[in-house]
Specification:
single chain, alpha+beta, Nucleoside Triphosphate Pyrophosphohydrolase, 3-stranded antiparallel beta sheet, 4 helices
Length: 151
């Protein structure tokens, strides 16, 4: 069923993007690399409330977030399930220390956009979640100026 979702891309002062590796316990796309934070708003929760709530819950961060775009996608993860989402994408900047939620995140890393471009289009592209590959292509292709303005 189509449902609302959001994706947060957090950059540091050097312009690097924070990537998370999803926890091994995740039902869909466990141990795949993905955007800094993503989730779904609760029933009757505004998107603004949801994005800031989840940023704190997953990464222990608080920072201004700027809406970029929405996109719809559907992806199947073998027989275990699928995603069918209308996803709102936001960017923000923070160089504060990150505190991860181990139920959500297995690992973190900061990566420069050029290196990420090479990874998401190269031999390891399959190690990224399908929604992240779609959104990163659009973020870097159509909204690069907004990302660079964060620095």
């Amino acid at each position: 069923m189509l449902h609302r979702a959001f994706s947060l891309l957090i950059f540091n002062d050097e312009g690097e993007l924070l990537l998370q590796q999803r926890a091994a316990s995740k039902r869909l796309w466990p141990l795949y690399w993905s955007n800094s934070c993503c989730s779904h708003p609760h029933r009757a929760e505004s998107m603004q409330t949801a994005i800031h709530r989840r940023l704190g819950e997953e990464l222990g961060l608080s920072c201004p977030l700027r809406f970029l775009f929405k996109f719809r996608y559907q992806a199947q993860f073998d027989a275990l399930g699928a995603e069918h989402e209308l996803c709102s994408v936001f960017i923000g900047r923070s160089s504060a220390p990150v505190t991860t939620n181990p139920q959500e995140i297995s690992a973190l890393r900061w990566i420069a956009p050029a290196a990420l471009e090479a990874e998401t289009t190269g031999a390891v592209a399959g190690s990224f979640t399908p929604w992240f590959r779609l959104e990163w292509q659009r973020v870097w292709g159509e909204h690069r100026g907004a990302v660079l303005a964060l620095q």
